[in-house]
Specification:
Elements (H helix, E strand, L loop, with lengths): L1 E4 L6 E4 L2 E4 L2 E4 L4 H6 L8 E7 L5 E7 L7 E7 L1 E8 L10 E7 L5 E4 L3 E7 L4 E7 L8 E3 L42
Antiparallel strand pairs: 1-2, 2-10, 3-4, 5-12, 6-11, 6-13, 7-10, 7-12, 8-9, 8-11
C-alpha cells in the first residue's frame, strides 16, 4: 500500500496494491497490520454505505463532537466523487484550510479523514456508491456540520447548484461552530 501525505496535517491518501488480469481485479481494502507498519492504528467499529442516484449530490461538511468524534477511511466503489476535508482543529497550522480529492471506482484511492476534520463530498457521476469505515459509532446528539458554501472557506466544489439534504442547507459557517477540537501536535 502506498501512503501519500496530503497538504493538511494528519490526513492521508492510501493507494492499495491492485492485482489485475483478464478476470478483473483483487485488492485489500483494509489491513490493520500493514497500516500499523506505516504508523497507523485504528479500531474501526462501523461501516457505512451511501448511494447517490444523481450527479451533483453534495453530502457534508460533517463531523461529530467528542466523545463520539470519528476517524473515517473513505472510498468509492461505483462512480466518482470530489471529496473535501477541512481541518477544524484550533491551533493546527492548517486550521480552516481545505483540500479536495477525486476518489473513484477506477482510481481505487482511499482517504483517511482524522478526528477534528469536517468531511463532505459531491458526486461526479450518477449512481455513485460511497463506503467508509469509522472508529466511533454514530451519535445524533453529537452530529455537526459546516455550510458547504461557507464563503470564508471558499471551497471549489464541482457544482454551484448541488442537490442537498434539508440538514445540509442549514449548517453554520466555520466561524460559528463549537471550537471543541484542539490540535495537540504529533503524538
Amino acid at each position: 500500500m502506498k501512503v501519500i501525505a496530503t497538504n493538511l496535517l494528519d490526513a492521508y491518501i492510501f493507494e492499495p496494491k491492485v492485482f489485475e488480469d483478464q478476470r478483473g481485479f483483487f485488492m485489500e481494502t483494509f489491513n490493520a497490520q500493514l497500516l500499523a507498519e506505516h504508523g497507523f492504528s485504528f479500531n474501526f467499529v462501523q461501516d457505512n454505505h451511501a448511494l447517490s442516484k444523481d450527479s451533483g449530490v453534495l453530502r457534508g461538511l460533517h463531523y461529530q463532537l467528542e466523545p463520539f468524534a470519528q476517524t473515517k477511511l473513505v472510498r468509492v466503489t461505483s462512480g466518482s466523487v470530489y471529496d473535501v476535508i477541512v481541518d477544524i482543529r484550533q491551533g493546527s497550522p492548517t486550521y480552516g484550510q481545505w483540500q479536495g480529492f477525486v476518489l473513484s471506482a477506477d482510481n481505487k484511492r482511499q482517504l483517511l479523514v482524522p478526528r477534528g476534520f469536517a468531511h463532505g463530498y459531491c458526486t461526479l457521476e450518477e449512481h455513485t456508491e460511497f463506503i467508509y469505515k469509522v472508529d466511533n459509532y454514530y451519535s445524533p446528539e453529537h452530529d455537526r456540520g459546516i455550510a458547504w458554501n461557507d464563503s470564508e472557506l471558499n471551497i471549489d466544489w464541482p457544482t454551484a447548484s448541488p442537490i442537498l439534504s434539508d440538514k445540509d442547507t442549514k449548517q453554520p459557517k466555520l466561524k460559528d461552530v463549537e471550537g471543541q477540537f484542539i490540535y495537540k501536535g504529533k503524538e
